[in-house]
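This section describes the prediction task in plain terms. A model, or a person checking by hand, is given the sequence of a single protein chain and must write out its three-dimensional structure as a string of tokens. No templates, partner chains or ligands are provided. The sample shown here is typical of the held-out split.
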Amino acid sequence: MIAAMTLTPKTVGWLAAATTITIWTSFIVIARASVAHNLTPLDIVFLRILGAGFVLLPWAWWAMRRRKMPSVSLLGLSPLSWRATVFTGLLGSVLYASLAHSGFFFAPAAHASVLLPGSLPLWTTILAILVLKEKITRTRGIGLLCILGGGVSVGGASLLKAFEGGDVWVGDLLFMSAASCWAAYGVFVRRQGLDPVHTTIAVTVFSVFTYLPVYAVLASAGLIESHLLTAPGLEVVFQAVYQGVGTVVLAGIGFNLMIRYFGPIRTTMLTAVVPGLSAMGAALVLGEVLSTNTLMGLALVTAGILIGARRA
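The expected answer:
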């Protein structure tokens, strides 16, 4: 009976994929919707880290006391070494979240649909070749070319409009930069063989000890704009719960489980449905109009991810 209830690694991987994809899809729509409200991008990142910290720091303290995980850095709250904690926390949380949320204040959600999850396989493959020494099959190479074409279709069009005074291209570059940070994070996790839960805890501990105090000092000194004290309480609580518990804790552990069971390249290519679903959500929920270039980019990116995800 117990043996029958035990989940196989494959089942765990697919459950993690379903959870991660669902949260990533809603994240793009909700993040863009937040632009029309009261909080700044750095406010949202603050609440994201704060919400995750409320869940994961007590967990880390309890696990340390019960010896459920190794205690190696940051007052014994991070189960990873100093080097691993800094690397994963900086790339997988502080930089990624700051760049991604800032991008939504310049570019529409449809662009994020193409350039955030869409460019992730491209960055991951480049890093996997350089760092993990993985070989790229012909099929995966074709998929990557489609992804590259989709990114050019969306990003190139907005870049041309920069000469007319538009600033959408700024958001596109921020999305691409955020995707590259997340790809580097995923490849590092794979190369080091890090535990999914331990990694997510370490990422959050690093962010709490670095981003929160720096943000508080800069906001108090008036060096950065902050609306935390004037925003409606319900909005603040929602962002802390959704961003912290949802996108950091649940999606963070889910993504790391996918990395463990599928590898970094196949993991990012299993997110094929995210661009299309999030773009549809942006059109239905936010009323965004999908341009021809955006639709072409979505089609190329989705096709590229599907082609690349096939086994050789």
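For orientation: The two ends are 37 Å apart (CA to CA).
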